[in-house]
Amino acid sequence: MIKLNPQPQKEIEKYIYTWHYKGLRKIAGEHKVIGEKLYHEAGKGKEAQYIHPIVAAMVNSHGKYLLQLRSSKITNPLKYDFSTAGHVNYENSSLEEAIQEESGEELGTYLKNPVLFNEKPFIIKANLKHRIFIFHAKGTQGKINPGVEVKRVEWLTEKQIHEINSKPYSKAEVKELMNEGYSKEKIAEFEQKGRLTSGLQFYFEKIAGMKF
């Protein structure tokens, strides 16, 4: 794990941390594990009170955004997402450490001087317990080498992002998704919602000022 100088993160102290590992979500409060639930049960029933803090970073340089295309083997398959993003581990000492840990796993390198956009997290959907903290960065510290959850990364302009969001899956992508067990109906549903994840679409609409 990357060693960073912990910085005060007042907002995240208000939330309950969660940690996902091998299908389990360990629920913790004040850095102490107080329960454990299956991943799909987290956030339901009595656990609905637990908030899932997420960190995400957008790398933007020379008018282009660095986006990752998610693997077909994970949630939101073959959809475009932030440069890097993930759940905060309750062992992370700061949001900065959390986003750098995600960057190391997904991009194979760390972000160059990531800056927290807003200390108060964003709520993407009212019915979800996710709270997202967004960072901005101008680049990465080293060469990008995508991890297993990332199919590839692309530098895209706003115009290209608009075009991609309404672009259907290619024949090769449809075949890849069907090999992962998705039906044609489910693939059509993915396309109808757009090729950007809901979090990324939120970012471009609410922060970058783009309209889809």
Any key phrases for this structure?
212 residues, alpha+beta, 7-stranded mixed beta sheet, 5 helices, 10 strands, 24% helix, disordered N terminus
Describe the structure.
The protein is of the alpha+beta class and about 210 residues long. The strands form two sheets. Strands 4, 5, 6, 7, 8, 9 and 10 form a seven-stranded mixed sheet that branches. Strands 1-2-3 form a three-stranded antiparallel sheet, with no helix packed on it. The chain has helices at about 95-105, 160-165, 170-180, 185-195, 200-205; strands at about 15-20, 25-30, 30-40, 50-60, 65-70, 80, 85, 115, 130-135, 150-155.
Question: Quaternary state, please?
Answer: single chain
Question: What shape does the CA trace take?
Answer: globular
- Counted beta strands: 10
What string gives the helices and strands in order? EEEEEEEHEEEHHHH
CATH topology of one domain: Nucleoside Triphosphate Pyrophosphohydrolase
**Main sheet summary:** 7 strands, mixed
Write down the CATH class of one domain.
Answer: Alpha Beta
Evaluate the radius of gyration. 17 Å
Low-pLDDT segments:
1-24
* Residue share in β-strands: 25-35%
Helicity level: 10-25%
What average pLDDT do the residues reach?
81
- How far apart the termini lie comes to 38 Å
The chain-level structural class is alpha+beta
Number of helices: 5
- In the CATH hierarchy, the architecture of one domain is Alpha-Beta Complex
CATH superfamily of one domain: Nucleoside Triphosphate Pyrophosphohydrolase
